[in-house]
Structure formats: structure tokens, C-alpha cells
Amino acid sequence: MSEDILALLKENVIQGRATRDDEGLMGDMAGQPAVAELTQEALKKHINLEKIIKEGLTEAMQVVGDKFSTKEFFIPDMLASAEAVTKAMDILRPHLEKSGVESKGKFVIATVKGDLHDIGKNIVAILLRGSGYEVTDLGTNVPEEKIVDVVRESQPDFVGLSALLTTTMDSMGDVIESLKKSGLRDKVKVLVGGAALSEEFAKEIGADAYCLDGFQALDVIAEFKGGA
Amino acid sequence: MPREGILVQAPYRRMTGEQVQQIHHASMELLTDPGMLCFNRQAADIFQASGAEVAPVPDSDTSCWLIKIPEALVLKAVESAPKTVKLGARNEDNSLIMHGDEPRVFLVSGSETNFWLDVAFETYVKKSSPGVELQVPEFQLRRGTVADLCRAARLCEHLDTLDAFIRPVNIQDKDVTEDNKDVNKYFASLNNSTKHVMAGLTTLSQLDNLVKMAELIAGGKERLKENPIISFITCLVKSPLQFVDDTTQTVIELSRRGLPTVVSCAPQGGTTAPIREDGIVVQINAEILAGITLSQLVNRGTPVLYGAVPVRARMDNLHDSYGAPESSQYNIDCVQMARFYKIPCYSTSGVSDVKIPGLQSSIERMFSNTVTMMSGPQYLHCAFGLLENNLTFSPVQAVLDDAHFQMIKFFLRPPRIGEQELAQSLTQIREVMGTAQKLYIRHIRRLLRSGQLSPPYPFESEGLEDNVLALAGQRMEELLSRPVEHIDPATTRRVFEEIPGILPRLNTYEGGEHGV
Known about the structure:
The complex is a heterodimer.
Chain A: H1 2-15, H2 35-44, H3 49-69, H4 75-99, E1 106-111, H5 119-130, E2 134-137, H6 144-154, E3 158-162, H7 170-181, E4 189-193, H8 199-205, E5 209-210, H9 214-227
Parallel strand pairs in A: 1-2, 1-3, 3-4, 4-5
Helix pairs in contact in A: 1-2, 1-3, 1-4, 2-4, 3-4, 4-5, 5-9, 6-7
Chain B: E1 6-7, H1 17-32, E2 36-38, H2 41-49, E3 53-56, E4 65-68, H3 71-80, E5 84-87, E6 96-99, E7 104-108, E8 115-125, E9 133-143, H4 146-157, E10 164-166, H5 178-192, E11 196-199, H6 207-218, H7 221-226, E12 230-238, E13 242-243, H8 245-256, E14 261-265, E15 268-269, H9 277-298, E16 304-308, E17 311-313, E18 320-321, H10 325-341, E19 345-348, H11 359-374, E20 379-381, E21 386-387, E22 392-393, H12 395-411, H13 419-433, H14 441-448, H15 468-480, H16 489-498
Parallel strand pairs in B: 2-13, 7-20, 8-22, 10-11, 11-12, 12-14, 14-16, 15-17, 16-19, 19-20
Antiparallel strand pairs in B: 1-7, 2-4, 3-4, 5-6, 8-9, 12-13, 17-18, 21-22
Helix pairs in contact in B: 1-9, 3-9, 4-5, 5-6, 8-9, 9-10, 10-11, 11-12, 12-15
């Protein structure tokens, strides 16, 4: 019985259906229970929380990632699945806190000072949440002082900095310098991304990694965690 | 259900209504002054019997007449020429129905080249870094054969955007003669494609054999009339303003039999026609109308297409330059003239000047194909795979063309704007504005698999390399490996029994090497 619910949950994550109203990939699934309803159902049946996350959510996201890499799925599909997982995590969070299960990691993300572009940053945030990370999104045009303050207070594992413009990408270096001055640089991994950036630029400013897109960000984080 | 083609909602026009009238009146003038030279006695007699002024041309080496065609005769022919023409197909779902006043475009391959361009992808090693290998296309030209024609028909059968088939390669096998060429080229095409097949006649002596073959395949004389699976293209006028003897006779015979025919003219701006737009357009319009008039005098109501193949000359070698923007201008003007007469239009685009597939070929073709399609010709001979000023057929280029036509056809879809659509969009915008991320990406999913979003370019490379040709080559091989629906065994047997001259190797059911 629990296997049936988890299989349905997995299928609905793959279909990117957060709630009952969602139509799914082929537009023919509206009205059927989706990730939110199935997660509630799993809780009612007292299915183990870690089992729900592993077999219902994480394994589904792996399938979605594989389908994306073979071009069967596209970014909208990935995002829909990630949003569905976020929905499930919102429902599970109070139960996880009660039972002492920890999130995969804390991630602070921001578009740096002077830059208002946030499409890429938002996509990365959705993907990270959908992959089980606890994400604090500071928004756009964020001064380095604010980022440093948040890092100091919430002690994240990762900071993600985004910029689209060549005129604002230098602010990323300022953030890293400020983290150094505040003695926080060694406590957090800094990932940078944005259309104007490159691997070389990331090295130049002392970032830990350059991420071409959200999916690469997930891989990079997994590598850091594996190496930790 | 016939093929849908693409209906161009607001066709591009170069000429104003007044300019169209001016071209029309100037063409009428040309048909009486200087009039048409005619090297075919029967045509001269037909015109004379119909009230045209016909006089022998003195001091001519061959029999030649000068025909002054009065406007009334032309207008009567324009009136009697069908405004709707159906071209049938072995699979009737592949039929084309063309209305002269409706800018619905059908895309057609051809026309005949002498050379087939093979491509092989060889691996090269970088001298300075032996670990680096590169796939480089190597091209080889060879004379076309009947086996190549079978392959071309099979390939074209599987190109989604291609609506009808004109053979892109001439069959030059040793055992193909003038007397058996027509039956072989039509049979090879019909047996490997269920789309409409159009071709030019090599010799009039084979016409009755061809018609009999088409009747057998279509299911009888009446069925062929209802579903004309074959049609003809005949260039009866040599520019400027001369009825040629043999092709004029062909048009007379095709018209007598009521077979769908493209009455085509192919003046070259700069050599056989003025290079200026007004000059070449007025001349070709007069030439085509003269041909249509002859067809209608022979048999009122016989189906014809207004066949425009105007092209500008290259200044370095006087070859046809289909890649020149002027050639597209000429063609678009002709589309407007045909629509003015409400006669379905055969138009030309897409031939590239360059010898091999690549950047130049794709740029030239995308340009002329897009602008000419935008003008809304009914039957666009857009030269799938043709290169080198119409001398070479490259199947890889044909595969590229199919991908590019997908893009053009997508672009030409009419906008979906209406109260219902706008209400949906407003709801969506309000919904997204109420979210934290303010992204519309999630809403794309409804459209993603519905065919309402254009797909990415199918031959895109991952990195800094250019693999377009290699990927198109793979696609070509995949398409050629797909089966086609051949003519059934009983009909094939009758065709081989009753139609002389068809090469045994084309017989699908008797171990024919090119039949399958």
C-alpha cells in the first residue's frame, strides 16, 4: 500500500503536478491527486519520512534529470517537478523538524548590487528547493553587507551570487572580499553564475565554483558535499 | 483530406494594384507588338483559326510565324482556365487542391539536375594535436541514375514539409534511352512516393504510354481524371517571346487530353529578358499568358498552372543566379500577376548558387524561400536539395531544407489572437504577478507538447564545433532506411506487362534492386 502511494508520488513529481488542478505533461491529469495530496496521504498512512523523501521525491528528481539530459524533458518540466517537490517539502517540513531529520543543506542566494536581473537566480532557487535544500532568497540588487550579515546569522553551507551584466559582475568579488574581511569566507562555499561570467572570472575573484546553469549548480553542490 | 499546405494570411506584395494593372496592360501590348514568334505550325494554325493575326516570317531558316494575339483572346483564355486545380496522389491524402485566389502554399521538390552529390564524413587528425579528431564532409559528384531517383523519391516521401515530387535528378543509366526515359522516371517516382508526381516529358511519343501507366496505377481512366496522380511541366516559350516547336506541341497534346500542366517560362534577366524588374515581369507575364491562351484554345477548361521561373543572370559567368535577391523579386511579382488572373501559380525559389551544402547554400535558400513563400504562391518549386544553379542535387541539403521549411511554415502560421486567447493570457499574467518568482516558465508546459512551440534547430552542435552537415547526414540515412508504400503487386505486374520499356530492376516484386 505504501509502495503504491510512493509510486504515485514519484510519478506525479515526474509529471510536475504540484496539486490536483495541475494537468500534467500531456494535459490530461487534472482532478487526480497530485504531489500535495499524495504527500498528505503518505503522512496519514504513517509512511517513514525519509522513505517518502527518498523513494517518492529524490528518485523522481533523478528520473527527471535523466530525461532532461536526453532532451526528453525541458526546463519547464524540470521546474514544474522541482516546484512539486517544494510543495511536498513544505508539507513535510514541520514533521521533519519534529522528528529531527535535517535538510540537505542551507543555501543563500542573491542577485548582486546594481543588478536587477533575476530569472536565472529564481530558476536556481526553485531547483535547489526542489532538490531538498533550504533556500533563502535575498532578491535582487543586494548589497554585500546584507549578504555578509545573513551568512553570519544563518550560517549557510553555500552562497550563490548571480549577475547578468558585465558592469555588475565585479560586485561578486566585493562580496567575497567582504566575507574574507568578516572571517566568514572559510565557513561557506561561494558559487557564482550569470550570462557574462566564465570559469576564469570565477577563479579570478576567488569563488569556489562557476555554474553555467541551475543543473550544474546541483552537480557542483553534490560534489562539494561528497568531498566534505 | 488533401494536404493542408500553409495558408499565408497576409501575403507579401511588392506591386500596388495600379502597378499590377500596368504590367497586365503592357503585357497585352507585347502580345500584339511585337507579338510571339512561333516555330510550331499547329499552334500558328490554332491561333489563326481563333482570330489572331498570323504571318509567316520571311527569310527565316526554319518555319516560323509571327503571331499577334489580341487581348480579347487572352482574356477569354484567362476566364476559361480553371481557378481551382487538383493534383492527385497515389495516397489521396497527399492530394493538393489549389485555388488561384487563395495564397495556400504547397512545397515541391525538383527540378531535374544532372549530378548527384554524395557526401562522406571522413575523420581528420589535427597535426599540432594528434589527439584532436575532426569529422569533415567530403563531397563527390556523379551523374544521376534511376537508382538515385528511387532514393530521392523515398527521401522526399519522408520529408514532412514536402507536398509534391518533381524529380530532382536526371536518370542517365546506359540502358535509359530517349524512348524509355519517361516511363522509367515516372514509374521510379510513383513507386517510391505516394505524393503527387510532376515531370517534364522527354519525348511526346511516350505520352500515351505514360497516361496508360497512370491509369493503371490510379485505378482506371475515370479515377485518373478524379485523382490526377501525375502532371506535367512544359516550358513552351523560349524567351524572349518564342513558341518552341517541340514543347509547344507537347502543350497542345497535354491540353487535348485535359492533363494538368504547368505552362512555364524561364527568362533570364540580363540575357533573354530585361534585367530590370518591370521589364522581365512584363515579358514573362506575356509569355505565360500566350501559353495559357494556346492551352485554352486547344481545350477550354484544361487545367493549367501559371508557371513562373524568372531568374537573374550572374555577371561573372551568365549562369542563373537564383540566390540573387532580384530573382525573388521577379518571382514574387509573378505570384501577384497569377493571383490577379486567379490562376494557381507555380513559382520558384530556393536554388543556391554554391556547389556544396553549407552556410552559403542555407543563407541563400532561407532568404528566397522565406520571401517567396510570404507572397503565397500555390505551388512553390522550392528546389529541395538543389545546388550550383540547378546543376546538382544534394540529398543532405534536401534534409536541411526540410528543417528550414519547418521554421518558415511555423513563422507563417496566422497569429492566434482573439477574445478567448486574450482572456487566458490576462488570467495567466495576473496569476504570475501574484507569485514570488514572477516567472511564466511553468505555463509553457501546456504548449510544449502541443505543437504550438517551434522546436529547437534539429542539427545544433553542443560545443564550438559545427556538426550541422554530419547530423543532417545521419537524419538522411535514417529517413532512407524507412519503408515506403510501393505500388501493389497486381498493379505492378500489369504495369510491367502492358507498358513497354520499364527497366526490370525497378520491379519491387521480382527482385528489383532499386524497387525496394
